């Protein structure tokens, strides 16, 4: 007689959280159904039931990782005000994000950049970019908003890759330059 299935509505979310922990420790190359199942303390079959491929699992992990910065962006009252100094507000926001847990920021970028080699991740990376562009487009035109996102990514990546501290004043000045009328 078959055993009844155990009802566990949070299992999928626990698997995604476990994938993020594994990637945080070992990078995305450390993610396998087996390592994530062990981390989540679930049977191996649970990971393959919820995520048929590693790409599906990475997509879910990238979506979850993107929530952190998106939440900061949505909660930032200064970005809602029409007369805000956008360059200063964004520089402060990046400082808050970069000043948090460095490993979390590195993981978010590792997952984001994995889209270069994993086409399944590209739509999620593009969604993140478009979400940020959409918020910034309330203050400027679409092309400038995209340039701001590219600059913010560049500043953050340079800081992460060189080990240099995030320089809020530099970020504010560079963002202001992009925002200055031609």
Short key terms for the protein model shown above:
182 residues; mainly alpha; elongated
Gross morphology is elongated
**Residue ranges: pLDDT <50 for 5 or more in a row?**
none
Distance N terminus to C terminus?
75 Å
Helix content: 55-70%
What would the average pLDDT be, to the nearest integer?
90
Largest sheet: none
Number of helices: 9
SSE order, one letter for each helix or strand? HHHHHHHHH
Rg calc:
19 Å
- Measured by DSSP, the beta-strand proportion falls in under 5%
Task: Supply the helix-strand structural class.
Answer: mainly alpha
The number of E-state strands comes to 0
Protein described:
69% of the residues lie in helices and 0% in strands. It is mainly α and 182 residues long. The protein is elongated, with a radius of gyration of 19 Å.
Blueprint (SSEs and pairs):
Blueprint: H1 11-26, H2 33-40, H3 44-50, H4 54-75, H5 86-98, H6 102-113, H7 122-136, H8 142-162, H9 168-179
Helix pairs in contact: 1-2, 1-4, 2-3, 4-6, 4-7, 5-9, 7-8, 8-9
What is the compact description of this entry?
69% of the residues lie in helices and 0% in strands. Helix 1 packs across helix 2, helix 1 crosses helix 4 and helix 4 packs parallel to helix 7.
């Amino acid at each position: 007689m078959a055993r009844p299935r155990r009802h566990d509505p949070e299992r999928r979310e626990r698997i995604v959280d476990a994938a993020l922990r594994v990637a945080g420790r070992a990078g995305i190359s450390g993610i396998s159904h087996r390592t994530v199942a062990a981390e989540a303390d679930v049977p191996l079959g649970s990971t393959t039931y919820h995520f048929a491929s590693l790409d599906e699992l990475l997509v879910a992990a990238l979506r979850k990782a993107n929530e952190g910065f998106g939440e900061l962006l949505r909660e930032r009252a200064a970005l809602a005000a029409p007369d805000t100094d956008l360059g200063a507000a964004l520089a402060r926001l990046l400082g808050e994000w970069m000043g948090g847990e460095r490993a979390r920021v590195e993981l978010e970028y590792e997952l984001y950049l994995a889209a270069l080699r994993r086409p399944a991740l590209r739509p999620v990376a593009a969604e993140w970019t478009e979400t940020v562009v959409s918020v910034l487009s309330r203050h400027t035109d679409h092309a400038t908003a995209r340039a701001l996102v590219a600059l913010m990514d560049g500043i953050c990546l340079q800081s992460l890759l060189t080990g240099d501290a995030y320089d809020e004043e530099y970020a504010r000045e560079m963002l202001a330059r992009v925002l200055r009328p031609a």
